[in-house]
Amino acid sequence: MISHKIVPNISVDCVVFGFDFEKLNVLLVERELKDEKNGEILISDHTLAGYHIFEDEDLDSAASRILKGLTGLDNIFLEQFGAYGQLDRVSAPKDKVWFEHINKGFADRVVTVGYLALIDNTKVTLRLKDRNVSWFPVTTVSEMEMAFDHKFLFYEALQALQRKVKVEPIAFELLPDYFTLSQLQKLYEALLGTSFDKRNFRKKVAQMHYVIPLKKKQQGVAHKPAQYYLFSREVYEKTRKGRISFII
Fold first, then answer.
1. First and final CA of the chain: distance in angstroms?
2. How far is CA 109 from CA 44, 92, 105, 229, in A?
3. Whole-structure pTM value
4. Could you tell me if 138 and 24 are in contact, meaning their C-beta atoms sit under 8 angstroms apart?
5. Is residue 98 part of a domain?
6. What digits encode the pLDDT tens for the residues 55-84?
7. Domain check: are 73 and 182 in the same one?
8. Which domain holds residue 222?
9. Contact criterion met (CB below 8 Å) for 18 and 174
10. How sure is the predictor about 187, in pLDDT bands with cuts at 50, 70 and 90?
């Protein structure tokens, strides 16, 4: 049973990525603070999905709890990408004002553990009682105002994701069970910020024996229905010693 008593100087921050078949997105939470007397907006920016850990839970459990509360999903792909304890992480004037306002007993110095999370955002209904949470294209983050060092953490996670998708099949976590080759290509292009020749991409995929063609095709589309494929974790594990690189 979780006690809900926080550890004041340790938090987890989850950089949650999703794909909508066109672009790569990141899940961000709106942070707003108004002056109680005149209604003036004192703080208006965004944060990652994160919170302090509780005294009787470990780091992984804390990350899973936070994502469950935002998405309603269990068994989300989660992986640590780093730990961050810079002296000035929470020392910006607006962040100090925020801490004073919420009065949760957080420490003046907070060490956070960053988690990379991947989900199919077309299946998620976002929920958070007292704050807005939304998907944003990763290409827009550079122009956004963010809390604490969360923009830095976002780019740390994005770079970790881009490194890993070249050598491990984690990109399939962002797709539904069945997908087309065009959708798979768009995903890799969105992840790596580039474009691929269609013919060369499909030749590469043809060598991935764990990307299995199905007899099933798209329905109700205006164009010629495309064939569906699925990713087989079982086949991947059996053949991983001889797997090819995901660098297209």
1. 47
2. 22, 12, 12, 48
3. 0.91
4. yes
5. yes
6. 999 999 999 999 998 888 888 999 999 999
7. no
8. 177-242
9. yes
10. very high
